Amino acid sequence: MRNVSPDTITQAFADYAAKAEDARTKEVLCSLAKHLHAFVKETQLTHAEWMAGLMALTRAGEITTPERNEFILFSDLFGVSALVDMVNTPKGATNCSNLGPFHQRGAPELADGGDLWKDQPGEPMVVTGRVLDAETGEGIAGATLDLWQNADNGLYAVQDAAQPAKNYHALLRCAPDGTFAFSTTRPKSYNVPYDGPAGDMLRALGRDAWRPAHLHVIAEAAGYRPLVTELFPEGDPYLDSDAVFGVREDLVVPLGTLANGETPTHLAARDRLPERVLHAPLLIRMARA
Ligand code: BEZ
Ligand code: FE
């Protein structure tokens, strides 16, 4: 097309894609172009502003490594990761939430009732729960939970050479009725990395980098959609201002206490726990595949 104008450029983009092989790819990319065009027109974007954005992406590429992906961080901080999670959560199932960059594959297996705390500093916490079928409410047999959280210094094992590899990471096989229990410490609120261009965006917007404390979970069971989510113990000061928009009502877990004698009898750490211990009860609802 010649004589392209602000009014015709979006249609021109769609026309150029007439020979696209995959209809969904065409739909997604044409929609993205439409919204980018609208953004430029709405803001009357200047050359300097667009170049500043492109330079931020260039720097994101320069500092991205397998351990740190600045593009994913931008997606998280813009709320796009959270929106993708929300539009893909099946009805009735526990909400999906951020995977984040600190997951490690191949976590050590933890028996139901096992211990992640291992007498490390922090507030010991007992987690009990059940993995349920979102439709029937019945326990799911054979569910596994890939669990990870930070230590009491706010750091995940991959961020902290002082922690043993895969500290506070576990692959827990639930009991046949879907129930599970383990001991850990209360996770801590922490800052997402803010020393790169995504951090510059936070500063430009007067935002901070805090995430409320959470326990990451990937729940899997044969015949069910894998669920990547996070559970947030109640009472954290950042629950209403999570930098990556990960908090949903059903992901906030009441945080009570139990007398040690009330904790599940198969808890490996039971003898070492304090007389009263923090208790987080979780319910994880999974949708059929
Ligand atoms: C996390 O929860 O581990 C996380 C999520 C998004 C950005 C950084 C960290
Ligand atoms: Fe996290």
Key attributes of the depicted protein:
about 290 residues; alpha/beta; Protocatechuate 3,4-Dioxygenase, subunit A; 6 helices; binds fe (iii) ion
Task: Explain what the structure shows.
The structure is a single chain. This protein is α/β, with parallel strands linked by helices. It folds into 2 domains: about 10-75, no CATH class; about 95-285, Protocatechuate 3,4-Dioxygenase, subunit A, CATH 2.60.130.10. It has 6 helices and 12 strands. The protein has helices at about 10-15, 25-45, 45-65, 70-75, 80-85, 195-205; strands at about 110, 125-135, 145-150, 170-175, 180-185, 190, 210, 215-220, 225-235, 250-255, 255-260, 275-285. The protein has a 6-stranded mixed beta sheet, with no helix packed on it. A 4-stranded mixed beta sheet has the order 5-2-12-11, with no helix packed on it. Helix 1 packs antiparallel against helix 2. The chain starts with 8 loop residues before the first helix and ends with a strand.
